[in-house]
Amino acid sequence: MLGDAGFADAEIVEWLFRRDDELGEAPIDALLAGRKAHVRRVAQSQA
Fold first, then answer.
1. What pLDDT sits at residue 40?
2. What pTM value is reported for the model?
């Protein structure tokens, strides 16, 4: 999704590991905790 929006691979990896205020944690941590729908919504707002 982020790649389709023009994000470079390095930017996507940075986003995954950077704390997001809306999620309250890094997207990768939310994904590992099973909150993929929430991460998708946040990613869509970034795209």
1. 94
2. 0.85
Question: At 12, phi and psi to the nearest 5?
Answer: -65, -45
The backbone region for 27, taken as left when phi is positive above 0, alpha when psi lies in -120 to 50, beta otherwise, is: alpha
State CA 4 to chain mean position distance: 14
State whether the Cα torsion 1-45-19-8 is positive or negative. positive
Q: Mean pLDDT, consecutive 10-residue segments, the chain of 47 residues?
A: 91 96 96 96 89
**Distance in angstroms (rounded) separating the CA atoms of residues 9 and 35:** 22
Cβ atoms of residues 8 and 15 within 8 Å: no
Distance CA 21, CA 43 (A): 13
